[in-house]
Every structure is written in C-alpha cells, then in structure tokens.
C-alpha cells in the first residue's frame, strides 16, 4: 500500500539507467578480480621461493677470468662488510648468502634403464626460511644418510630435450624424477662418504643444486673448509623492480638475473593495471550509488506531502523506509544476476585465448561472488542509511 | 484520558491580545467522554491547536500534558503509537492521497490498525452515501465527499479523543448529521472525547464551547 502511494513519483527510465550504470561498475569489479586471479599464477608459476627475491653475484669480467687462470687473484666474493652494507639498505627486507660446497661431489645411479648415470656436481644452500617447499623429506641431520635435492627445472629440460633425445634415453617427468633414487659420494680432506639422494622439487627461477643447509654445514666442515667464500646472495625485497634497488646494485658493480626482473616488472604491470581497473569499477559503482541516493532523495522530495500524510496516519519511519529497502534489494539482486553474464562470457573468452599460459586458479568463483555480494550489501546499507536519514528530516 | 493545556500559545500568534481567547494562554482541560467545540474566525489558530495536540507542530510556548505527560517529551515512536490507538484526526486539509481511490484511502489506515472488517467499511461508505464513488480516485471527488472519506478513515482505529478540524464545513445539514452521528456513536463506544473546531459559534449537541 505504501508502495502504491510512493510509486506515482517513480521515474522508471531513470531507475533503469541507474541499474545499468551499477551493473557496468559491478561487472568491471568482478571481472577484474577474476582476471587478476586467473593471470597472476602465470607470472609466478611454481616457485619454491618465499616472497619477492633477487639473486645477485659479483660481475665476472674477462680480466677477473684471466687473473684467476694465472692464480694471481682470488675468486670475487662478498665480504661480511659488504653483506652488512647491503642488508642496511631500506629496500632490502632480508638477505642471505648462498653457502657453496667446498668439496668434490659425484652423483651416480646404477639404474639399467637410464644407462648408469654419473656426474660431478656441486651443492649450494640457503636457510629454510627462504624456501617454500612442503616435502617431509626436506631437511637433514647427522643421523641421516639421505639427502633431499632441489634442481633447477632447466636441468630436467636439458636432459629431456637434449640429452635423452640424443642418447635415445627415456624422457622423465618431474614426478618420475622424484622417484629415482641416486647416490652421492663426497670426497675431501682425505676422507670419503656415501649418501642416498632423491630430487624433492624443481625450481623455475634458480640455477643451482640446493640441499639443506644443515647438510652443507656438516659436510663443509668434514670434507672442505668451514666458511667457503660467498659468491651469490639472495635478497628478499618488497619490489624486485624497484629502481632505487637496481641503481644501487648497478652502482656497486653486482650482477643480477635480468629475466627474473622482467617477470617482476610484468607482475608489477599486472598489479598496476588491475588496481586501475578496480578503481575504475569502484568509481563507476560509487557513481551509481550516488545516483541511486540522489534518486531516492528526489523520490522522497516528490513524495514529501504523501510521507507527511502517512506519518499523520500513524505509519512509522521504518514502514515508510521499507519500500526503499525493497527497491534496493531488488536492484542489488538484478545487478548481481546480470553481472554474471559478462562475468562468465568474458572469462570464457580469455580462458580459451590464454589456455597455454594459464594454470588452475586458486580463487574459486564462490569467493568472488561472496565478495561481490558483500560489496553490494555495503553499498545498499549506505543508500538505506542515507534514505532513512532524509525521511526523518522531511 | 485527560488533555491539559497550560498557557499555550503558538509562536505565530504571540501578538494576539490575551484576554480575547478562552484557550490561548489559559489553563484548559479536555476530558475523554465529553464533547468540545472550539469556535473561532479564520486565522485564530484552530488548525494550529489541533496540530499541536496531534504532535504535528512544536512551535508553541506553554505546556500540553496528555495523561500528565508533557507531549514535548514524546519521541516519534510514541506519536506513532498514539496516532494508531489513542488519537484520531480529521485534518482540515483532509490529507487524502489523491491518486488512490476513496476506498484505498480508508484501507491504508485500516491496514495499520485492522480495526474494521471490509464489510464494516462498506457499511459506513453506504451510510455516508459514498458506495458508488468508492473506487474513484480521491482527487476527483467533491470536497464534501472527500470529507466523508476522511471521517470514515479517522474512525478506522480505536481512540480516546477524536479531533475534527472543521470536518463538516462542506457538508449539507443532512450529511453533516449522518457523519456527526457516526462519530458520536463510535466515540460513545470508546468512551472517547470529541474536539471539533468550527467557524460557527455553536454546534448541536456539544456541551462545551470555547472561543479561541
């Protein structure tokens, strides 16, 4: 009945226009979130490293090589003083040296299918807090003769697409590689030891053979030197493409992985683009909210007399507010429902176009929907509160 | 129920000479179960008085007590309750929704109180000679017809006092009698008081006449 009293002043075209603007803004927000969640993993695919990081080393010049060949010069390494200085920079939140192995090591298998594999190798280690790997085999103590190993993915590719093809050996998947046990023999300081080993993970970004730090600390002490020179550092930084950071690295004459930096830049670009789109969507939504509020106020003003009559008859403010709440709820449901159309259509579009680079997104649609509903609810509450306030003021 | 006026005067009427009025700046008591005629020429504040008693205006000095409570202390919620259960009003402007039919105008009040059945409403419409006009938009009814709609609407609630602000001004004697009797019957049923404002100095059957 109240609705019938107030309806006379409703301007349907205006309401539809507001609905469309709200729909546009809301769809943009939902799509931006979905797109970001879908694309983001492609920029940080399967990596074992915690946080944003950058690996730096000392620049190796031809002169340095010659110097080393003539045994006149030490290998370039980071001194404690240098490390302290780097760590004190504001754009570095954490830093650790790579601990390198200082002994001879060999890996071999006696597997007939793989043709008896044998190689000389080296190890490096960083503290566990830099590694994001959930494998119960990771870790080491002196009672174990088993070593978990993390390999760069490029090694596997090198084997699969180069070596295996040329030697007519079977190609090995990541999972299968993890199942192959091999042996590691270590020699130095006049002694020797054997260990069982297994690959527990592959890293996309790092070109080294990683073992637990406890293992390397022990073996370096037993078979090599306790504190081998540090040739590489891993830096944890909020933003690896920070220009200040890069300028500092360049000025200090250090070398870094440029490809990794491009990835960081692309990610930064994606983040920025997403934020811009989100702000645009939010802006449009707020504009729609503002129009909605304005339109409600107009409706109230046009109905000012009718509302006075209703109050005179004994209608409460709450009862008068109710049709406005209903209108808002209806609008929200329509906006939400309609936004599912572009949401699913455009999602299909980019998913089919970018199939090659996309992996399974961690963000379920349900969360996008719940977030969207929350947003609509908040906007609705703002609208209703504002309307309620102006009813009381009438 | 008892309504007490203590020295009230609406702000716009402050200039008015005091001694002329039997209501303004006086102590007056209205009691339920009795009938009061407030008689005055235009501009003496008849509607202002009704609006003050009904909580629609607050620009007055002095105090009004309903059952010994100062009505200035009432919140909106309390007025809402009073207007549903205790105080009925036929406003001078009638305050009908012109795009709703006569019947809908009555229903919109009755929905709030569930006081009458649909058939009772129909009976009243018939008594007042409005049965065939009930579905017309209130805006196109004559003023007399509108007044009767507003009167029936006002009766769609329990009340202890009914304020009639020149409610019979556009009714002929026959129709005024019909409407008047209807109100009196209802008021008697509730043991309620009637407060009628009018331009004329007397009205049949009203015990107390006060000149504004």
Structural class estimated from helices and strands of chain A:
alpha+beta
- Mean pLDDT over the residues of chain A: 83
The coarse overall form of chain A would be elongated
User: Per the principal axes of the C-alpha atoms, what is the gross shape of chain B?
Assistant: globular
Oligomer: heterodimer
Describe the structure in brief:
The complex is a heterodimer of chains A (394) and B (212). With 394 residues, chain A is of the alpha+beta class. Chain A contains 12 helices and 11 strands.
Task: Set down the secondary structure blueprint.
The complex is a heterodimer of chains A (about 400) and B (about 210).
Chain A: H1 2-7, H2 12-43, E1 53-58, H3 62-69, H4 80-87, E2 94-97, E3 99-100, E4 104-108, E5 118-121, E6 124-125, E7 146-152, H5 153-167, H6 174-179, E8 182-188, E9 191-203, H7 213-223, E10 232-236, H8 243-251, E11 254-256, H9 258-302, H10 304-313, H11 317-353, H12 365-393
Helix pairs in contact in A: 2-9, 2-11, 2-12, 9-12, 11-12
Chain B: E1 2-10, E2 27-31, E3 35-39, H1 46-53, E4 60-66, E5 69-70, H2 76-85, E6 87-90, H3 102-113, H4 118-127, H5 143-155, E7 161-165, H6 173-190, E8 193-198, E9 208-211
Parallel strand pairs in B: 3-8, 3-9, 6-7, 7-8
Antiparallel strand pairs in B: 1-2, 1-4, 4-5
Q: Can you offer a commentary on this structure?
A:
- The complex is a heterodimer of chains A (394) and B (212).
- Chain A is α+β, with helices and mostly antiparallel strands.
- Chain A has 2 domains: 2-46 and 265-393, no CATH class; 52-260, no CATH class.
- In chain A, 55% of the residues lie in helices and 15% in strands.
- Chain A contains 12 helices and 11 strands.
- Chain A has helices at 2-7, 12-43, 62-69, 80-87, 153-167, 174-179, 213-223, 243-251, 258-302, 304-313, 317-353, 365-393, and strands spanning 53-58, 94-97, 99-100, 104-108, 118-121, 124-125, 146-152, 182-188, 191-203, 232-236, 254-256.
- In chain A, the strands form 3 sheets. A 5-stranded mixed β-sheet of chain A has the order 5-4-8-9-7. Chain A has a 4-stranded antiparallel β-sheet with strand order 2-10-1-11. In chain A, strands 3-6 form a two-stranded antiparallel ribbon.
- In chain A, β8 (182-188) and β9 form a beta hairpin.
- In chain A, α9 runs parallel beside α12 (365-393).
- The model of chain A has no long low-confidence stretch (mean pLDDT 83).
- Chain B is globular, with a radius of gyration of 17 Å.
- By secondary structure, chain B is an alpha/beta fold.
- In chain B, α3 (102-113) runs parallel beside α5 (143-155).
- The model of chain B has no long low-confidence stretch (mean pLDDT 91).
- Chain B contains 6 helices and 9 strands; from the N terminus they run βββαββαβαααβαββ.
- Chain B has a single domain (2-211), classed as Rossmann fold (3-Layer(aba) Sandwich).
- The longest helix of chain B has 18 residues, at 173-190.
- Chains A and B meet through α1 and α10 of A and α2 and α3 of B.
